[in-house]
Amino acid sequence: MNELSKEEKEMVVKAMGFTKGHWYKCPNGHFYCIGECGGATETAKCPECKQVVGGTGHRLAPGNQHAGEFDHSNYASYSEEANNPLNWDQNQLAALRL
Fold this sequence. Notes:
It is a single chain. By secondary structure, this protein is α+β, with helices and mostly antiparallel strands. The chain has one domain (about 5-95). It has four helices and six strands; from the N terminus they run αββββββααα. A three-stranded antiparallel sheet has the order 2-1-6.
């Protein structure tokens, strides 16, 4: 697998335009993105290795995982952690109040 550089990952994230937490990886470590809310609602095959990617009911298929290293996110966008205000960055919240 060809590893993307930090700069290439940043360009891909910027081009896709999603908020943090939309990036995942298949059981073999190939990256993919889930649009809309970022929660898995359907499955597909990884174009690289043909493993199942995505999931159903906002739950990832076995072996798939959040890829925070791709977009520097701490949590998947559709997760209890991301939607719990106690986990939000207080500095970012203060900026929103301005």
